[in-house]
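ok, trying the design again with the full structure, not the truncated one.
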């Protein structure tokens, strides 16, 4: 099993997860303050999308690490990086 090695990628994931954590706390406050259901649903949707983005970033990391372990071809690694960046950006 591979682990995330790059400090910048790890930091980006942690920062994104902290934002998701804040969004979830915000949803809790909305519910406690009896906010309209539509407002709660909107914030839940945003938190879900943010968490999905973290998932895609993690999957991209796994793909990159697998290619790095299986291949020493720099061009292939660059292509995989480009594809995983696109996956993360458009997810």
């Amino acid at each position: 099993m591979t682990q995330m090695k790059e400090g910048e990628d790890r930091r980006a994931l942690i920062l994104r997860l902290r934002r998701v954590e804040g969004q979830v706390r915000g949803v809790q406050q909305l519910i406690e303050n009896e906010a309209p259901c539509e407002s709660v649903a909107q914030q839940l949707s945003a938190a879900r999308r943010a968490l999905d983005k973290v998932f895609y970033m993690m999957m991209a990391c796994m793909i990159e690490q697998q290619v790095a372990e299986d291949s020493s071809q720099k061009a292939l690694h660059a292509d995989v990086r480009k594809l995983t960046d696109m996956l993360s950006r458009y997810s």
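Keeping the full-length input from now on. The longest helix spans residues 37-70.
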